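Subject: design request, 256 residues
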């Protein structure tokens, strides 16, 4: 555990112990007792002090404490694993997204690094400032096929599921989102809730510069073309050419 995390635990644990002391009209010694119990529960059950307070953990029976604590421990282990992956991903991106890896002698190193980290297929073509990551503790996945191009300044959010099939081209500045916050459409919903979605980009499709693929789009068809600057809000059929905001079909490649 890092120093900053420990400071957070102590700071908020002390403040929440004070809240409990005041609400119970108890002495300073009681606050100390609660504070040390909060610290114990953090290390034993990976429980944050706000969770300790929410569950009134200090008045539960030993059996209830153990049962509830183990549930929080399971959540905490999953949370810590996600956070470690997130931190490692940020370190990876800080290193390999640098423009210096456009130098011929370094490009292959970046290609191999991205291929290994994201288990991509053969002949991945990857330019600088490409951010492939997930958000909000969502357990998304990404699959990248053979001969895929991901050009500079692309952002791929795989908080949900992203499947990029063979021979796909993501050109300069493409943004892909696979989660949304229901709070944006209903302010009565917890703003911290994030819901994942899935996206399949079929083989031989091309997404134009600075196009945005929103989470409401779940399928981009094979041999399709998405125009530069388009905002894609719904599925794109095979062979379709779509442009505009929101993106609309203007024709099919196999239809004149």
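Subject: RE: design request

Done. Sequence follows.
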């Amino acid at each position: 555990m890092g120093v900053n995390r420990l400071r957070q635990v102590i700071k908020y644990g002390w403040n929440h112990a004070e809240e409990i002391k005041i609400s119970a009209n108890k002495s300073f010694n009681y606050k100390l007792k609660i504070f040390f119990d909060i610290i114990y529960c953090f290390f034993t059950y990976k429980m944050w002090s706000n969770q300790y307070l929410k569950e009134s953990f200090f008045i539960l029976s030993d059996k209830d404490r153990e049962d509830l604590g183990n549930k929080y421990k399971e959540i905490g282990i999953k949370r810590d694993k996600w956070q470690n992956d997130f931190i490692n991903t940020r370190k990876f991106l800080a290193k390999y997204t640098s423009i210096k890896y456009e130098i011929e002698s370094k490009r292959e190193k970046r290609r191999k690094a991205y291929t290994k980290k994201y288990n991509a297929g053969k002949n991945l073509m990857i330019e600088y400032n490409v951010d492939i990551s997930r958000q909000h503790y969502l357990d998304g996945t990404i699959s990248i096929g053979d001969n895929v191009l991901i050009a500079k300044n692309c952002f791929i959010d795989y908080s949900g599921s992203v499947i990029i099939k063979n021979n796909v081209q993501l050109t300069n500045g493409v943004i892909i989102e696979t989660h949304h916050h229901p709070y944006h459409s209903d302010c009565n919903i917890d703003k911290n809730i994030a819901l994942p979605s899935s996206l399949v980009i079929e083989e031989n499709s091309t997404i134009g510069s600075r196009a945005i693929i929103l989470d409401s789009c779940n399928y981009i068809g094979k041999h399709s073309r998405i125009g530069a600057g388009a905002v894609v809000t719904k599925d794109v059929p095979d062979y379709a050419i779509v442009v505009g905001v929101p993106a609309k079909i203007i024709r099919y490649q196999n239809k004149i």
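The chain has two domains: 3-81, 105-252.
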